[in-house]
């Protein structure tokens, strides 16, 4: 939501209707009119480029980052800024799909500089115990 005032359009994807409804209520409450929400699982961001090239991508997809990023070569070529929450342990994701270090390496190999800028252990903004979550945030910017 913090970037909504700085970009032309925001697209949000979530397979969970409850989370999507919460986001839509927040969008309405804050008076944003530049959001499109999709209740869907996304395999490739390239499927959504018809609506224009993204300037920034905020990604928190609970361990499926590697699969989505590696299947989105056109999106990577458009050189958006990426802000990604990466997971090393996610109960609903098979271990062979959890490749957080490969996500960073994939972006670096495609011309991005990456910076890890925040660790999160048991912190949860809603005050819930999250000792089972091992995640961190990565900022990836295209090299000039």
Automatic annotation (TrEMBL):
InterPro entries: FkbM_mtfrase, SAM-dependent_MTases_sf
One Pfam entry name: Methyltransf_21
Biological process terms in GO annotation: methylation
Membrane listed as a keyword: no
Record bears the keyword DNA repair: no
Stretches assigned to the Methyltransferase FkbM domain: 29-113
Gene3D superfamilies according to UniProt: Vaccinia Virus protein VP39
A GO molecular-function descriptor: methyltransferase activity
Keywords: Methyltransferase, Transferase
Top-level division of the source organism's lineage: Archaea
Protein name: Methyltransferase, FkbM family
Source organism per UniProt: Halorientalis regularis
């Amino acid at each position: 939501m913090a970037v909504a005032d700085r970009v032309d359009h925001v697209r949000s994807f979530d397979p969970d209707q409850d989370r999507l409804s919460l986001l839509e209520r927040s969008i309405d409450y804050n008076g944003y009119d530049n959001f499109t929400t999709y209740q869907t699982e996304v395999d490739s961001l390239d499927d959504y480029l018809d609506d224009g090239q993204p300037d920034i991508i905020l990604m928190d997809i609970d361990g499926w980052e590697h699969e989505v990023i590696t299947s989105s070569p056109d999106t990577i070529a458009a050189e958006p800024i990426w802000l990604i929450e990466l997971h090393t342990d996610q109960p609903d994701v098979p271990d062979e799909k959890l490749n957080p270090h490969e996500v960073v390496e994939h972006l670096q190999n495609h011309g991005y500089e990456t910076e890890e800028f925040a660790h999160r252990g048991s912190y949860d903004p809603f005050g819930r115990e999250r000792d089972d979550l091992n995640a961190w945030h990565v900022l990836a910017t295209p090299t000039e």
